[in-house]
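User: Sequence recovery, please. Input:
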């Protein structure tokens, strides 16, 4: 990382961990914690979708893995009695293994066919959640307790959320911390040898294969990491909402995960984070327009994609080139 990037990271960390909580505490608008927590979780799932874009595949099925991750976490908490914090990586691993099982056959397809297959994944997962006894069908899994204390050698690492005066603040810090870790991992992948190989798939798969790149392995690996992100986002959602239903994540959510990547910028690691923030707050700000909300919202999205085909972050790269 160069000095400019290090400064940017430090400023971002100060913003999300110090400036934002201070601003919310000053305004007394505690509901913003829930809003920003939701943005953080959605951006984690969107980061996974971005990684599949990075290998030249359009992923419209991330909602399926978020739903699966949520159910894995809920089942482990309610039926096994596991501490929530241990269910997060297990939910991610389950989704990663599931994605390998699904991805091995369909990742051999051309990009457009892969996109069409992933489009039905969220609905398939919803129907599975309705049918399987362990998921409790349409009733879902409710009354999930708040995250318990996590300690190591008698030292409390994370307090019991039920004992906190303001668990919304705790959820915010937990979600943002996981988001920072996920994007740090994503940035490291992109800037590693693995990332360079993945970029070669995006440009020309046949050429990559001709020089010895194991294209099938890379596609499955990237897809499994993508699904891992979706799973942990779903697990965190369960802790916040204290419930999970088959309709908790739908096809529209999978499409929004994809739009977050487009809006922020497919060529930028942190594009999904910015895209999620703009899309989430943009939709809420247009709520006052009533029945015209969807029309204005979709029109603005189309205009942004036409004017900024490389995403919002491309504005800054244009300025750098001009200077």
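Assistant: Recovered sequence (323 residues):
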């Amino acid at each position: 990382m160069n000095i400019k990037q290090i400064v940017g990271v430090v400023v971002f960390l100060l913003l999300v961990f110090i400036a934002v909580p201070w601003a919310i505490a000053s305004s007394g608008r505690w509901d913003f914690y829930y809003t920003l927590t939701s943005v953080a979780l959605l951006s984690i799932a969107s980061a996974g979708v971005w990684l599949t874009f990075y290998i030249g595949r359009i992923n419209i099925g991330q909602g399926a893995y978020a739903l699966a991750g949520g159910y894995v976490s809920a089942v482990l908490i309610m039926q096994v009695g596991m501490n929530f914090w241990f269910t997060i990586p297990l939910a991610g691993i389950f989704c990663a293994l599931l994605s390998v099982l699904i991805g091995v056959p369909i990742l051999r397809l051309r990009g457009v066919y892969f996109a069409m297959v992933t489009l039905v994944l969220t609905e398939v997962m919803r129907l599975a959640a309705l049918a399987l006894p362990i998921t409790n069908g349409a009733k879902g899994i409710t009354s999930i307790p708040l995250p318990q204390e996590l300690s190591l050698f008698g030292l409390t690492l994370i307090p019991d959320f039920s004992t906190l005066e303001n668990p919304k603040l705790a959820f915010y810090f937990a979600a943002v911390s996981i988001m920072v870790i996920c994007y740090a991992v994503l940035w490291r992948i992109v800037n590693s040898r693995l990332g360079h190989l993945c970029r070669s798939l995006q440009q020309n798969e046949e050429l990559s294969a001709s020089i010895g790149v194991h294209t099938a392995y890379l596609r499955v690996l990237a897809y499994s990491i993508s699904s891992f992100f979706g799973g942990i986002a779903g697990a965190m959602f369960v802790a916040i909402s204290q419930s999970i239903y088959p309709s908790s994540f739908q096809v529209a959510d999978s499409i929004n995960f994809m739009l977050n990547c487009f809006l922020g910028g497919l060529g930028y690691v942190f594009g999904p984070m910015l895209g999620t923030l703009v899309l989430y707050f943009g939709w809420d700000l247009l709520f006052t327009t009533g029945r015209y909300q969807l029309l204005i919202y979709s029109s603005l999205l189309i205009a942004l994609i036409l004017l900024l085909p490389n995403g919002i972050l491309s504005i800054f790269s244009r300025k750098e080139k001009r200077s």
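The longest strand covers residues 155-158.
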